[in-house]
């Protein structure tokens, strides 16, 4: 791939697709006709597997009614724990350290609310490129504890507006810190954090380490238990393709089993005693304790289907290998063919997530022009076109074609037909 003409030719993309052992997986996804779908880090597409799993629980609801809680196959009563156990290999966790429950934002509320302890250290380390909801939830939890978020939050600042230096995170961690809560992958630039180094530094300072894995679960393997991460949250509608508003996941290291969740509810009760209906809460001795109310089975079933795809791919490591090949290829093409754009994503594979941030001052209007051509990407302010070639259903030729479109949009200044951001209803 060193020959410039070679990189730019569609034949070389087709050769890479032909050699790709995962190329058949795409037949299991519904991608709207004619679209190049590069937005699976916002919402993954439907698959036949997800649809069948959803149909299955709808059928059971029809035929079993309330008996489904015990008689469905698999039963609905322990559905959250069972899906947690299926997800555990993706996280490098023990089966009982993972459960699906709630939404990501709610899981941040309950886990930060449970594990933040000013006695351990009042300061909570975050960064200034985080996804906003994480900060909203953390600030709310600090206020609940009578702590002023402006005092307690120690916000690591980006030097370049794209990435966070590990050394700056480490410099922020001292004896005043009780918790570090960071993303695995930054949602805009796609930087992958060094979870192991950060967790060790937090522990050395007597602090806990929590992570938001929204942009890595299903596309990057994790080793949470080996690393000793204290807790983590993620959504399943991005790279896991479980559908809009699908149930989220959470991880709690077994050393914290028995902690009383800040947002307690009966679905987190020990399953053995849940239906004793005692008025005092008896938390499950597992991550299951952090469930709150009744599991939304219809929002959980598609995940049961899509996890088959991950298993058939040979696990997340195989998906990661293809993902890095796709993002390498995309970065090469941007360098070669789009000199007016910059790549905002780290080039080092060890620091790169599953998507690529292509920067241009007109990123907003360019993303609208791409969408009008059926290239589904998204815009992130101020200047990023986010392109996510998700490895389960995007191929090298797709990446090549997306760059062709981008080249044509820039050549014809086609984006000028679109209103500037803020000029009207968007
Ligand atoms: C997508 C995403 C979320 C979404 O949270 P919801 O509660 O599912 O809306 C949260 N955090 C990060 C980092 C995300 O990328």
From TrEMBL:
<dbReference type="InterPro" id="IPR010111">
    <property type="entry name" value="Kynureninase"/>
</dbReference>
<dbReference type="InterPro" id="IPR015421">
    <property type="entry name" value="PyrdxlP-dep_Trfase_major"/>
</dbReference>
<comment type="function">
    <text>Catalyzes the cleavage of L-kynurenine (L-Kyn) and L-3-hydroxykynurenine (L-3OHKyn) into anthranilic acid (AA) and 3-hydroxyanthranilic acid (3-OHAA), respectively.</text>
</comment>
<keyword id="KW-0663">Pyridoxal phosphate</keyword>
<dbReference type="InterPro" id="IPR015424">
    <property type="entry name" value="PyrdxlP-dep_Trfase"/>
</dbReference>
<keyword id="KW-0378">Hydrolase</keyword>
<dbReference type="GO" id="GO:0030170">
    <property type="term" value="F:pyridoxal phosphate binding"/>
</dbReference>
<comment type="pathway">
    <text>Cofactor biosynthesis; NAD(+) biosynthesis; quinolinate from L-kynurenine: step 2/3.</text>
</comment>
<protein>
    <recommendedName>
        <fullName>Kynureninase</fullName>
        <ecNumber>3.7.1.3</ecNumber>
    </recommendedName>
</protein>
<dbReference type="GO" id="GO:0030429">
    <property type="term" value="F:kynureninase activity"/>
</dbReference>
<dbReference type="InterPro" id="IPR015422">
    <property type="entry name" value="PyrdxlP-dep_Trfase_small"/>
</dbReference>
<comment type="pathway">
    <text>Amino-acid degradation; L-kynurenine degradation; L-alanine and anthranilate from L-kynurenine: step 1/1.</text>
</comment>
<comment type="similarity">
    <text>Belongs to the kynureninase family.</text>
</comment>
<dbReference type="GO" id="GO:0097053">
    <property type="term" value="P:L-kynurenine catabolic process"/>
</dbReference>
<keyword id="KW-0662">Pyridine nucleotide biosynthesis</keyword>
<dbReference type="GO" id="GO:0019441">
    <property type="term" value="P:L-tryptophan catabolic process to kynurenine"/>
</dbReference>
<dbReference type="Pfam" id="PF22580">
    <property type="entry name" value="KYNU_C"/>
</dbReference>
<comment type="subunit">
    <text>Homodimer.</text>
</comment>
<dbReference type="GO" id="GO:0009435">
    <property type="term" value="P:NAD+ biosynthetic process"/>
</dbReference>
<dbReference type="GO" id="GO:0043420">
    <property type="term" value="P:anthranilate metabolic process"/>
</dbReference>
<dbReference type="GO" id="GO:0005737">
    <property type="term" value="C:cytoplasm"/>
</dbReference>
